[in-house]
Predict the structure.
Amino acid sequence: MGVEVVVEGLTKKFGSQTIWNDVTLTLPAGEISVMLGPSGTGKSVFLKTLIGLLKPNSGHVFIEGVDIANCKEKELYEIRKLFGVLFQDGAMFGSMDLYDNVAFPLREHTRKSESEIRTIVMDKMELTGLVGAERKLPGEISGGMRKRAGLARALVLDPEILLIDEPDSGLDPVRTSYINQLFIDLNAQIDATFLIVTHDINTARRVPDNIGLLYHKHLAMFGPREMLLTSEEPVVAQFLNAQTVGPIGMSEEKDADELASEAGIAMPALPPVPLQLETSDGRPRRGQRDPGAWCRDNGVTPPPGSFARDADQAVTA
Ligand SMILES: Nc1ncnc2c1ncn2[C@@H]1O[C@H](COP(=O)(O)OP(=O)(O)OP(=O)(O)O)[C@@H](O)[C@H]1O
């Protein structure tokens, strides 16, 4: 389960506006990747291009050998069955209860009987902690529950690739932590390839196996979590540590005057690399690595205190 997504030289423009240029990366099969970037850098456009809802101006997206950026509608229709998508607002039908919302893709795209549908829907509702809420309408539940219902619906066709757009938008930090734990647990159970678009630095630091950063119309960096969290590259270090000092300004890049006024101000030291979230039942995930493994393998000394469960367990490379 879980298939690789290979993106090569992808460029997207709307008219004369370039959104991003020459994006190349591979989402490893079965691993969790996060895409970060300042507002308006085209993260949602990237998700929509991966699933073929938007056509790129150039480049390729290979999934199981099919270039979905350039294939026929019929092939795209087949490949789309591999995807589950959780949109930002959950995209629930307001007049249907949660059960019918979650059952919707099965009734639309399969010939399963109502009793088979019931088994699948209840399984996904259990996975997302929604048993007992089947008869609630989307307007009667909290934002966190709506996201989980959207997730249950994204899971009913057993996706190989799960695309998740800003799961933390509108959620408080506690609910965000719960949904992050749910992603880790789900990833271990279904072994699909996850791509999460987020603004939440905590999510980016603790959840994924890989991190990408879109900035100023290009992919600034994509790679293993520890690589980006120990990177001194100014854009990456500034964004991943939520600093004001660095090249990213209030609206995209700082101008020459702003940068000149910061001359001589050193970037703050990198904070410790946190431990990655683990599954709640200890089940291993395909993308999970030993804490500090990437740093050790690549001769990188992580900031002091990295990978500490508590002070006594600090791991140094
Ligand atoms: N269908 C469209 N037609 C024209 N322009 C579009 C279209 N969709 C998105 N854009 C533009 O593409 C740019 C990137 O939008 P996108 O929503 O992908 O950014 P984002 O990084 O997801 O932002 P945010 O973090 O604020 O959600 C924006 O300038 C937006 O106006």
Notes: Confidence is low (pLDDT under 50) at residues 311-317. Residues 14, 19, 37, 39-45 surround adenosine-5'-triphosphate (CB under 6 Å). Residues 5-232 form a domain with the Rossmann fold fold (CATH 3.40.50.300).
